[in-house]
Amino acid sequence: MKDIASYSTADAAYILEAGDYILRVGNDSVNTVKAGVVKVEKELVVKRVKNIVDKPEFDDYKPEKRVGYDSDAWNTDGLKSVILSPASISEITFNYESSAYIDDSLREMTIKEVVNLTLGHYNSKNGLSAIVGNAGFTVAGAAGQTAMGFEDKGIPTLCMADGPAGLRISKHYTKDDKGVHVVGDSAMIESVRELMPKPVSKILSLGNRPKKGAEIFHQYATAIPIGTAIAQSFNTELAEACGDIVGEEMEMFGVQLWLAPALNIHRDIRCGRNFEYYSEDPLISGLMAAAITRGVQKHKGCGVTIKHFAANNQEYNRFQNNSVLSERTLRDIYLKGFEICIRDSAPKAVMTSYNLLNGTHTSHSSVLTEDVLRTEFGHEGIIMTDWVVRAAGSDNTCKYDIAHAPEVIDAGGDLFMPGSKADYDDIMDAIKKGKLSEDKVLASATRVVKMAKQLGEIKKEDAE
Question: Which of 160, 208, 347, 371 could cysteine-pair with 257, CB 3.0–4.6 Å?
């Protein structure tokens, strides 16, 4: 009953209104029958929060009357009823003033070292190749990883592989004393490059040809069903089993964070990534994502990254589009699935979205990261950006700019991905000019280090 409380903007609270809540049972949304009724005899406040968005320049649609239901749909005569006890609903409130913990050991490091901990590991050649999965240094085809070179300080690196339907890694690779090298891929891993027009695909394939005589290794991951198909099963045990497969292969290949599941809402059939999302229903989305998360995270050293937080509903102009919505729409539809997943399964990471929300990049919003994710939802893991690459996202013709690393860290984000020298310079410059405090950077780095130690394992011989 708490999950179906609706948001009241006027009260800044989730409320169970008085009335009859009819339970329907069936094998799809059309073929259902009334099975019972829960009676709420007086209005109950489930939790009090605070309004987090400015009033948009429109009013939410309010129909004059119910549409599509005959009068019998609301008739409760003869149904078994349960009266909800008011004592079972305890009102929840939040303290938004809590301070961030800083690991004192990080104060012994240079600020340059600490800044690098808030960025994905990079080299001078990072650029367009980092967009969709060629930024891994330890697993061929991985999407990226946290800072390397801190093993002597007891801080391992976390390798991240993309989803959505299983681990997305390169099928062929070589290796030498410098690490692993993707074969046949350039800016895009092979599975993505195969979808490009043939002339483009051919050009991209020239980037990483193996050296003559080099041994070529092969690796293959299991393809699990797409998110929409899993959700259509209405079977959380199946979803958890799919996550179990992914977790087992993460252990096998040495991946610590899976950049999935994605649980954005199906808002428009034209969204190019609807296939990896679950539903237009936030309850289904949250429960399915939570089940997959449990399946993955039952494996030691494996975590998921739920995404894209929040209101990410289109791929057109993906870096700079602005989602404009009201407080109630945001809370009742676009945030609720994330809340359910975090509450039920404690994912290790959350990824912010490319889009802006009411004019502010989601990754720049301390209201979303600090107030909603950490305070209201109780997220204790890290918060990372989606892969922000200047070469792909900069467009002077757009009304809005792309996200930037200093603003992300200042808002309480922990990890700016995939990371680059330019992002490092931006953070250092913001610190120098007093636009970003060192304590903010230390707090973000603290959360990254905590997760790295929790998921990563440094072998003794590697550390030596």
Answer: 160
